[in-house]
Design a protein that fits this description.
The chain is an alpha+beta fold. It has 6 helices and 4 strands.
Length: about 210
């Protein structure tokens, strides 16, 4: 049974496959890390006094979801390809199958996270966003009693009678925190509904017009 070794000693086709796989894997990782990279770029821009628009350009959540979705898809394709290649070679050892299996699970999880957030935001994207509940509780004491968490939270149907929110279990694990629609990974939030948020938003908008 022949195993893959140093690309320089392999047949040209095999060497090319290894190089292309390595490049694709690097691209996949960069795409999955795009929210962190974008957030670092935003912090750098803010520190330099540059204006930031979370609804346009690279700060838009559309870019983040497209990039993470593409990264997940590439990761899944690469993992499946490697597992099939090992199966064709008859290599079922744990040392060989463990890395692509873990890669497949991780890429699949990120794909689930992206799909979950897209389903939360995009059916009515114009009426979605995020609010800092902790700040609102300080400004309007006693006005928010239905939401058990503080900090930045995603919301939808903010201008309807009942808004839907997601309370992160851990404020650290929020991707695209400064984008128009931050991403809270599946399993790291509790979802609920609130009649107080729409009322408070209307109150804030009315005060801003005075």
């Amino acid at each position: 049974m022949r195993r893959l070794g140093n690309p320089s000693t392999l047949e040209p086709t095999q060497a090319q496959i290894i190089r292309l796989t390595s490049v694709a894997l690097a691209i996949s990782n960069l795409l999955l890390l795009s929210p962190v990279i974008i957030e670092m770029a935003v912090l750098s821009a803010l520190s330099n006094g540059e204006p930031i628009n979370v609804y346009q350009g690279f700060m838009s959540s559309d870019y983040i979801y497209w990039m993470m979705g593409a990264g997940s898809l590439i990761g899944i394709i690469l993992a499946v390809k490697n597992l099939l290649m090992l199966q064709n070679q008859g290599d079922h050892s744990l040392s060989a199958t463990f890395p692509p299996t873990i890669s497949l699970l991780c890429a699949g999880f990120f794909a689930l996270v992206v799909a979950d957030s897209v389903l939360f935001y995009y059916p009515n994207k114009e009426d979605t966003g995020s609010i800092n509940v902790g700040l609102l509780k300080e400004i309007y004491p006693g006005k928010i009693t239905q939401i058990p968490c503080d900090g930045m939270i995603p919301i939808k149907d903010a201008h309807s009678d009942v808004a839907t929110y997601r309370c992160p279990k851990n404020q650290i694990i929020i991707l695209g925190r400064m984008s128009s629609q931050p991403l809270v990974p599946w399993g790291n939030y509790t979802e609920g509904k609130s009649e107080e948020i729409p009322i408070l938003i209307k109150k804030i908008m009315a005060e801003a017009k005075k």
